Amino acid sequence: MATKRRLFASSLVGIHISSPILTKRILRICRDTMQVKCDCSDGILEAYSGILQGFKSTAKAPLLMPFAPHILQFLDSLYQEKDMDDAVTKTAVGLLGDLADTLGSHAGPLIQLSVSSREFLNECLSSDDHLIKESAEWARLAITQAVSG
């Protein structure tokens, strides 16, 4: 029994001693996980943008309308998490503009109803990053045209 206690105690000491190393590993894993999440989000946003741009000015563009609420929900979830890097932010606001630009008056009211989309757009418009701000200005123009229809 005493041997088991010593083994247990020595294993606890080992954990305590290595905790700074463990903390560094955990932080690195978290940072790597965040980067993978941002890369995946950016890829999904780019794919949606590509699809919308491919259908722009075609007779089949309205076929994408059933997917618009889901795209807005995805954008809303990214916005609510508040952990987008600048690349994802720029791509996300660009997608918002692509949605309005491609679907026009069909998507205008839907975008107007999305509180997160309006807040997100306003944050991007006041961004210090000129690329985000430029994309947001274009998205605002596309949304304005879609709403006025």
From TrEMBL:
Q: Which keywords are on file for this protein?
A: Repeat
What is one Pfam family matched by this protein?
TPR_IMB1
Repeat among keywords: yes
Q: InterPro entries under this entry?
A: ARM-like, ARM-type_fold, IMB1_TNPO1-like_TPR
Instruction: Please list the residue ranges annotated as the Importin subunit beta-1/Transportin-1-like TPR repeats domain.
Output: 39-104
Q: Which domain of life is it from?
A: Eukaryota
Q: Which SUPFAM superfamilies match?
A: ARM repeat
Protein name in UniProt? Importin subunit beta-1/Transportin-1-like TPR repeats domain-containing protein
